[in-house]
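Continuing the batch. This is chain 6 of the set; chains 1 through 5 are on the previous pages. Same settings as before, nothing changed between runs. Recording input and output for traceability.
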Amino acid sequence: MGYAHVYAHEIMHRGRVPMEPADFVPDWADRPRKAKFHPDAETLPLPESPEPPEQAAGGVRGFTLPLLSGMLRDSYGLTGRRLAVQANTDLAALPHYTHANWSRGTASGGGLYPVSVHWAAGPGGPLTPGLYHYAPHQHGLRRLLTGDVTGEVRSALGPGAGAAAAATQYLVLGVKYWQNAFKYNSFSFHAVSMDVGALVQTWRLWAARYGLRIDPVLWFDEERLARLLGVAPEEEGIFAVVPLTWDGAPGAGQPGAAPAPAVTPAPETAPAVRHRDVERSRRVLVFETLRRIHEATAGRAADRPAPDALDAAAAFPPRGGDPLPLPAPPAPPVTTRRALRERRSSFGRFDASRPLAAGPFAAALADCAATAYGTEAERPGGPPLTSLYAFVNHVEGIAPGAYAYDPAAHTLRLRVPGPPGSFLQRNYFLSNYNLEQAGAVIVPTVRTTAVLDAVGDRGYRLVGATIGAVAQTFYTTAAAFGLGAGVALGFDNISYREELGLTGTDEAPLLIMLLGHDRPRPADFSHEIA
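Output for chain 6:
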């Protein structure tokens, strides 16, 4: 049993046994930046990406620079400023520019956005081959290295990477731990794993409209890619490599194209970025738990599991009372881009006076159940890793209670009858939500220990990313239907396991997702910048 099992146990029990350091207090005055800063690197502005007419969407042969620009802008780029009056603890600071909170299409734990996006641009693309860092605040690309390094990325992927080895363009996702750990300390690894999944799922939802695929690779030589990016492996983890099909590149739109040969230079001659991120914090702390879980989950291409390894960790069949049919999910009334621009957290603005309609509730359940992280370890058509449960407070035509969702039959099965509001609020640790006012609270679970047993410790990153992807789908669906939404980690996981009758199983409730109507006519400012 690896250290990831220990970490997973501590995460599940942290509501009752605080994780070390239990007395930690963030130094907000010395917080890091919300993005990397390379002062000596040239920044290239990205072009605008206008919304295409409906009939033009879909069927493109691959990414173009405007398409990639649009996907980056609508996922991690800044699209507006958060100035609404709400119940979160940062409300008083929001009007001050130095504490401004900017809206983005992708959700992030604590609004910290620690994922760094690097583009390894190879031949056939619009830019000089090299390595570029996406600067979200400038919506531009910082050139960190000139020269084709895609061979180095392919070498890091190793054998068995499938179609990813044929790409000429790659997005490499890293996480600068201190950018999150300054606030969440040992818990941060759990949070940032979800952040990566949320970002990848945003890309998948965005690209699907154009008929493009987003298939992240999780198993690779992480140390080699860290060396290429010029980052210290213990300070920044490399969590995913996303190959891009590029319009006009050899093999674009041809899944069977032969992969380009990988170049494997000796480590002392391998290319590496020399530009360094300039840290704002005067004091950077090291947390032993974070260091250990990073080392335990570090990637090696040789550890890539067989495509059917995760079958042993599949979600259990839904159990409960007689099936309660749900209405067919209605089509979302707005585009994915518009939904991402409208995405936000409700933070105490839920209002139970208007019940949640069953149609959008059913759509949220169906969309979340259909979500997977989609790595090379998950075979196409394989069983899902997540189960969904719903605590119904105020949904039209559905009696209050806790239910299991059956995605195959699109039905609910009653687990616990009666209004759940008291249980929900009693087991929530923060003051920024009144859970009883939400129409429903959806809870995704994963058999975490079964995943770790099946694919090893790196599977913890897969678990987190899967839950993060579900959360991003939830937010996007809620925004598409004009509903309030919130996602929270501050709850007693064990109490939820007990309430849902999951004690004795390895199902782990890892997130709570609140859905409902917000109060009418909220106090807000219109401050769009994109």
